[in-house]
Amino acid sequence: MKIGVSIIEDDSSVREFLGLWLKQSADFRLVSEYGHADSAIARLPQDQPDVVLVDINLSGQSGIRCVRQLKPLLPKTQFMMLTVYSDSDHVMDALSAGATGYLLKRTPREELLAAIKQVHEGGSPMTSFIARQVVQSFQRVEPQTPGLDMLSPREWEVLRLLARGLVYKEIADSLGISMPTINTHVHRIYQKLHVRTRAEAVNRFAPFPDKFPGPVAPKPS
Length: 221
Prior knowledge:
This protein is an alpha/beta fold. The chain has ten helices and five strands. 48% of the residues lie in helices and 12% in strands. α7 packs across α9.
């Protein structure tokens, strides 16, 4: 059975050659073509295509917004962006909106047709360096922790309690140590983190609350 494909593209010349490529292939049938997002949103649910090729820079509203509105209406339809935009913001926005493929318009004919088959069969075809951007966006880079690695376990525990809003006396009571000792710990924390205030120390701590896991004494009632 042929794969039904619709096109949402406001450049008539691009729509024409895309439609021609589909008509010339025995594996596809051209279901419909739209030059505006609004008309596609209104009529595409009745077309029930298998795959939709969508430009991003449409008149009226973007192709990403178009996909976001159409995907809930056509949950079984696969949307593939075909655009000139290669930046990571457009890529991630499109995928978040419901697109399952992302190709650039310079993609050769045979590669594009193969990608339509792939997305129809459950794949997520992307131009190679677009795929690299997606991979890199999900790779977690360990953030820098200047000064935090120098804290002792006790200093880290004091900092965690400072971040919870406890005053020095509450911290001393919670840890069973004296006020002078708390003052010493806080002074050393400030030195190691190169900060001057409690707020600066807590801000340095905020991204890494679990770096040194351990029991935290409950805040006194």
